[in-house]
Amino acid sequence: MIKVLIADDQELIRQSLQIVLGIREEISVIGTAGNGNEVIRLVQKEKPDVILMDVRMPEMDGVQCTRMIKERYPQIKIIILTTFDDDEFVFSALKYGASGYLLKGISMDELEKAIRTVHQGGAMINPGIASKVVELFSEMAQSNYDIMIEAENVDELTDGEWEIIKLIGRGMSNKEIAKAISLSEGTVRNYLSSILNKLNLRDRTQLAIWEVQSGSAKYRRK
């Protein structure tokens, strides 16, 4: 029997998934949660095999919750089930150990297949999101990656922007960064926009890859 925990801030979705999955063979819904803190409490008590995790939840979002659970219980499989295919969420969730990233609207047969697949150690990613992931790893595999920034551009970065870059390289979301350095999410987004403009990068994914690949600390002004 595969023990499944459902995490979503919308009660209707939680109840619907619980009812539909509850009648599937060899799947048992052992609980539902409306926010990340509830997920953590239920995980400690019930030890689910698979968690269906929404991204945007109050108190603690699904990405941060995924990170905490995988650090403490690496054997638990997590499927992100959400309406958001933003690069920020995809990159962070997969980096923190999610085994699947699916968009709401998939059929129950597809969801059941995903649950069984990740439980057996596989991965399931929505086709539209898979292309983002393929592009990401293709970029990371390029030894002559074309975002090795000219020194004069890098020197334009402020100390505050360097701090943002370091945290993005760790896979942190805007919300996590804002909390870590006591800024609003809007201010973090403004910082990110400024950084991308200065370094001529397309998005935060490229920035994160550059930070990890090149070890941006070596560019830091003395």
**Main sheet summary:** 6 strands, parallel
Q: Based on the coordinates given, report the CATH architecture of the largest domain.
A: 3-Layer(aba) Sandwich
The CATH class of the largest domain, by name, is Alpha Beta
What's the domain count? 2
Secondary-structure class:
alpha/beta
Q: SSE order in H/E notation?
A: EHEHEHEHEHEHHHHHH
Distance between the termini: 57 Å
CATH superfamily of the largest domain: Response regulator
Which term fits the overall shape? elongated
Classify the fold: give the CATH topology of the largest domain.
Rossmann fold
Query: Roughly how many Å is the radius of gyration?
Result: 19 Å
Report on this structure.
This protein folds into two domains: 136 residues, Response regulator (Rossmann fold, 3-Layer(aba) Sandwich); 69 residues, Arc Repressor Mutant, subunit A, CATH 1.10.10.10. The protein is built from eleven helices and six strands. Strands 2-1-3-4-5-6 form a six-stranded parallel sheet, with helices on both faces. The chain is 53% helix and 13% strand. α9 crosses α10. The radius of gyration is 19 Å and the shape is elongated. About 4% of the residues have low confidence. It starts with a strand and ends in an 8-residue tail after the last helix. β5, α5 and β6 form a beta-alpha-beta unit.
